[in-house]
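G., the chain you wanted modeled:
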Amino acid sequence: MTVSRLPSAALSLKQFLHRQNVLGIYRNMLRTIRRVPDEADRKFLRDWAREEFHRNKNVTHEDAIRMMITQASNHLAELQKSLALAHS
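Predicted structure as tokens:
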């Protein structure tokens, strides 16, 4: 019987891919928020994004994770669209 060299807390491939996807959305969200012209709005959105991602960081249910990824992607797309309209 072989012993695994991976730590017991190692992520599965699916978990790793979800994590990378979430981190990418989070980074894009923060980058997009930096483009918000009003300082107060920028702070509100940054605090909101950080709180939402922090609040959900321990979720493990597969369907809930997929739903939250979809919601976060939709929020990001909406914010990007609003900023594009504001700058045109």
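The helical segments are 13-33, 39-55, 62-86.

Shout if anything looks off.
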